[in-house]
Amino acid sequence: MATLSRCCLPSGMCFCVAFPFLNKTVMDYFSTIDAFSSWRIFVLVCGLPSLISVIALYFLPESPKFLISKGKYDQARQVFQRMYECNTGNSKYSYPVLRLKGECDNSNVDMKFLKKRPLSIRIEENIEKLMGLIKVLFSLPYLKYLAISCFVDFGLMASYITMIMWFPEIFERFNAYEKYQTDSPELGVCVVSANKDTSTNIFEEFLKTFRKCDPSIDNRVFIETVIIGCSCIPTAVSLSYFMKKLGKNRVLVISLVLSGTATLLLNWVQNSTQTIILSCIFEALASLMEAVIFCVVVDSFPTNVRAIALAITATFGRLGAIFGNVIFGVLIDVNCVIPIYVFAGLQIASGILCLTMPQKENYIPLH
């Protein structure tokens, strides 16, 4: 499920969504309405899958493991019966398991009694339980695994989210550069960005466009973005195979190191075609890696602290996305080399650190 959700994010850039809703020539009808523009409609359409997912989740049953941990064995058995009926086609009443055992006593009497206690006592006990879980999480060896997973997700999201957001701007600059400087022998990303300030001829048309308040963008940018969005499809299809064949950790190491190398090579591209190729490699490798990171976190922590570890890891990933966008936006026209090297270094370092995370068979149980 996590892999599928991560696959859907970059797939939103694919042809069926991006080109019809971003292309102004297709949206002439909506352009006559002041309240609507192509980007607003695009954002609306991209938000629909999340809304549909929320509605679909409402009809899904609760996790049997969660129900068992809460002492709700009858409800857990009903979920198992439903799964059995869907998977086998047999009647749910032929489900062979008659009685469940788990973390709680096989009776709901105690749970009903606990619910009758005052709210203040229950809150106090929940806080004490949470602090106990945090204490376990911040003890060795789990503290080490938590620090590594946070750094890896921070480095990945700082690089991935930033580069994906800035690729259209980079492509637009490349297209303008190639249009006015056809005899240039070198077209590195940072060379193009540097010439934005040093050459008045290259971006003269940009300035005229902005003065007229006409935000026109070459449709070639959208086509290139669609190509990059489609590049993640092969990796999404083959990811589960490679995870079973190589292991989650090795998949993370290989993907992060290769995507970091692709980011680093953006400094030495010679034309926009090479830029698109490297961008596709980056997108194909980096787009699904957060789902793999979460899988590694699930394997590295015991059940009772797993949710907290995932939440902290995801938080650092979002902080990384903010960090990456800030430094790239500030430095792209000042010294583009710095963020490129930072992002490449973060990805490669994150990949190497993944070697120290435990494999599932090396899971350390909580005593």
From TrEMBL:
Record-level GO cellular component terms: membrane
Cell location: Membrane
Pfam annotation, one family: MFS_1
Keywords from the named record: Membrane, Transmembrane, Transmembrane helix, Transport
Superkingdom of this protein's organism: Eukaryota
Membrane-spanning residues: 39-60, 145-167, 221-242, 251-270, 276-298, 310-332, 338-357
Membrane topology: Multi-pass membrane protein
Signal peptide span: none
Record-annotated Major facilitator superfamily (MFS) profile domain positions: 1-362
Coiled coil spans: none
InterPro entries according to UniProt: MFS (IPR011701), MFS_dom (IPR020846), MFS_sugar_transport-like (IPR005828), MFS_trans_sf (IPR036259)
GO MF term set: transmembrane transporter activity
Family: Belongs to the major facilitator superfamily.
PANTHER family the record matches: SYNAPTIC VESICLE 2-RELATED PROTEIN-LIKE PROTEIN (PTHR23511:SF38), SYNAPTIC VESICLE GLYCOPROTEIN 2 (PTHR23511)
Protein name, per record: Major facilitator superfamily (MFS) profile domain-containing protein
Species, as recorded: Acanthoscelides obtectus
Highest classification ranks of the organism: Eukaryota, Metazoa, Ecdysozoa, Arthropoda, Hexapoda
